[in-house]
């Protein structure tokens, strides 16, 4: 029996379906081949890295931060090994519950938790954030045995910054704190991690790059559960260089104690007048730099903000004060050098000066009689400088002040500087909308009026008087020391500006300032066996209002150097609101100078001048 023939239409339909199936299989095979090409050729490195990351982890290793030391080797900023607990938000399944359990386990206060929450909110979710540093052994053990209960929580070994002298060097050395997004934008971000510390102020901030060093890394082998089981490779970090400064611990302590023991608000800065090396830099009151390392608590922050002494203000660099009679030596020198007066010029002081119907009183209303340059500086005779101001005129007065560095920021290796204010007729017209009067020049002639300077500017200016006319640039840093090799690299001083001071004019000012210490207004600064040149200053400053009237108090100032003929130290002291006589800067200056020369005398901060000082 023969089969009936297959219809032609059925045969064609079968062939079509066969070809369609073959085409579908070919397309599927092509997709597979293209995917293999993509995985194995085009994106080989990417997927190889992803596969590699399934069993290894790249762990950054922080470099130990460089130390900061005083000139004689005392450590001002150091590192202490400690343990910290950190959290990474995107690895913590239940954030709030985890924080509550950690607070109970570690016995953290509500203030500590609030501070951590603010810090964590400022970070990206993938960045680890330190909850608590300096864990006790008991806290480390408690976290270790409960680690499976806290995913995304790790105990890490860190190098914790510490300032052994607390508040003594807080303004000059500064402090470190947790790094922020703003900090990362200003520095090389690949050299930092989310939990790193970075310099926030002082030398710590100014020399951040050298103190920081460079990150290292370790390639860790991990198992399927994410537990590290070995180290495959490592690149050691580069340790930050140690910074040796010119600061003298003994001098810094003496200056700070002289201020703090009496509760004075003020500043002391001491320089080597030949080079500009900063020997001491004290701002009082101060604060404990250790408070800021892990982020300051709200309670401590509020205590600093509400302190009427404003301890966060660096008075040396940013405090603005009328210099009072401390401006007189500079006017006298410029007047002689410009030919306005001669070194032998004399004038009579009756106790007041009359100008345009207004009476300008001398601080000694009985008057000083016939007065020359030496006597005018030794006894700070106001009438002499009232008359000199009129002779000089505002243009020469301003030139004098600018010449000695006032009115411009003083370059120093610290962040943030104030320029102060040297008033001009143009400034007064623009800001006060009134013309400059001769009476303004008269007041400016005794360092009052609109004139504002910083203690650092005063120390720099008096250094120029001491060293013969070189305007030095203050510098705190002395040298870098490589901790690995011990190699020392000195940090050179900037070239001083030659003021081209006339020797005759300079000699006249030297005689007056030495006479001021030997028997004038600052005689209580004298130290047996040490020649000292100095000048007192009393500056009237507004302190408030009552019954529609402005209330005033007096700042007490001193500038000087020693020894006179071979100057080794120049100093500027400001004590705020010293009262009518304003003698307070003198014992502070003497304590500082005594410490420098290691005299071992009885604490001079208890001494007091018997006469009112301008």
List keywords for this structure.
36% helix; 614 residues; 2 domains; Penicillin-binding protein 2a (Domain 2); 20 helices; alpha+beta; single chain; seven-stranded mixed β-sheet; five-stranded antiparallel β-sheet; Beta-lactamase
Descriptive report:
The chain has two domains: about 190 residues, Alpha-Beta Complex (Penicillin-binding protein 2a (Domain 2)), CATH 3.90.1310.10; about 280 residues, Beta-lactamase (3-Layer(aba) Sandwich), CATH 3.40.710. About 35% of the residues lie in helices and about 20% in strands. Strand 14 and strand 15 form a beta hairpin. Helix 10 packs antiparallel against helix 20. The radius of gyration is 35 Å and the shape is elongated. About 40% of the residues are buried.
Distance between the termini: 142 Å
Let me know the average pLDDT: 88
Strand content: 15-25%
Are there runs of 5+ residues with pLDDT below 50, and where? 599-613
Number of strands: 23
Main beta-sheet annotation = 7 strands, mixed
Number of domains: 2
């Amino acid at each position: 029996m023969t089969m009936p023939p297959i219809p032609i239409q059925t045969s064609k339909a079968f062939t079509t379906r066969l070809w369609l199936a073959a085409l579908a299989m070919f397309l599927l095979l092509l997709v597979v081949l293209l995917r293999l090409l993509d995985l194995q050729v085009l994106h080989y490195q990417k997927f190889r890295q992803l596969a590699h990351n399934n069993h290894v982890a790249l762990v950054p290793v922080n470099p130990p931060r460089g130390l900061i030391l005083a000139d004689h080797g005392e450590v001002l900023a150091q590192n202490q090994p400690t343990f910290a607990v950190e959290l990474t938000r995107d690895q913590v399944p239940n954030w709030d519950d985890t924080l509550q359990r950690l607070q109970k386990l570690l016995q953290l206060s509500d203030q500590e938790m609030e501070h951590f929450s603010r810090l964590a909110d400022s970070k990206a979710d993938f960045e680890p954030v330190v909850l608590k540093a300096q864990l006790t052994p008991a806290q480390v053990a408690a976290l270790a045995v409960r680690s499976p209960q806290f995913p995304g929580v790790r105990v890490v070994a860190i190098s914790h910054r510490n300032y052994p002298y607390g508040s003594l060097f807080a303004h000059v050395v500064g402090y470190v704190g947790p790094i922020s997004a703003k900090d990362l934008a200003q520095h090389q971000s690949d050299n930092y991690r989310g939990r790193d510390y970075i310099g926030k102020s002082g030398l710590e901030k100014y020399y951040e790059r050298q103190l920081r060093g460079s990150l290292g890394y370790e390639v860790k082998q991990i198992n399927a559960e994410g537990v590290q089981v070995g180290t495959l490779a490592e690149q050691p970090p580069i340790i930050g260089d140690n910074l040796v400064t010119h600061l003298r611990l003994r001098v810094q302590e003496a200056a700070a104690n002289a201020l703090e023991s009496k509760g004075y608000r003020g500043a002391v800065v001491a320089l080597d007048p030949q080079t500009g090396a900063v020997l001491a830099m004290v701002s009082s009151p101060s604060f404990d730099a250790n408070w800021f390392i892990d982020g300051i608590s709200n309670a401590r922050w509020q205590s600093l903000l509400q302190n009427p002494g404003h301890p966060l203000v660096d008075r040396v660099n940013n405090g603005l004060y009328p210099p009072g009679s401390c401006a007189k030596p500079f006017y006298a020198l410029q007047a002689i050098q410009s030919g306005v007066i001669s070194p032998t010029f004399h004038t009579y002081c009756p106790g007041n000066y009359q100008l345009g119907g207004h009476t300008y009183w001398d601080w000694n209303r009985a008057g000083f009689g016939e007065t020359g340059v030496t006597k005018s500086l030794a006894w700070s005779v106001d009438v002499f400088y009232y008359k000199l101001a009129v002779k000089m005129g505002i243009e020469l007065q301003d030139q004098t002040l600018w010449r000695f560095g006032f009115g411009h920021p003083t370059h120093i290796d610290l962040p943030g500087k104030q320029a102060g204010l040297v008033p001009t007729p143009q400034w007064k017209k623009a800001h006060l909308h009134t013309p400059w009067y001769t009476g303004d020049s008269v007041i400016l002639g005794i360092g009052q009026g609109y004139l504002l300077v910083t203690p650092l500017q005063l120390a720099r200016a008096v250094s120029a008087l001491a060293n013969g006319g070189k305007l030095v640039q203050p510098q705190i840093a002395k040298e870098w020391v490589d901790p690995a090799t011990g190699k020392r690299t000195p940090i050179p001083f900037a070239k001083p500006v030659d003021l081209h001071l006339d020797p005759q004019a300079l000699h006249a000012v030297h005689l007056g300032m030495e006479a001021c210490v030997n028997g004038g207004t600052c005689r209580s600064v004298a130290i047996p066996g040490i020649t000292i040149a100095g000048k007192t200053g009393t500056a009237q400053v507004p302190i408030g209002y009552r019954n529609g009237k402005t209330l005033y108090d007096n700042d007490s100032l001193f500038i000087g150097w020693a020894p006179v003929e071979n100057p080794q130290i120049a100093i500027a002291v400001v004590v705020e609101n010293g009262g009518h006589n304003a003698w307070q800067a003198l014992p502070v200056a003497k304590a500082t100078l005594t410490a420098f020369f290691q005299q071992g005398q009885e604490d001079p901060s208890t001494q007091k001048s018997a006469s009112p000082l301008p």
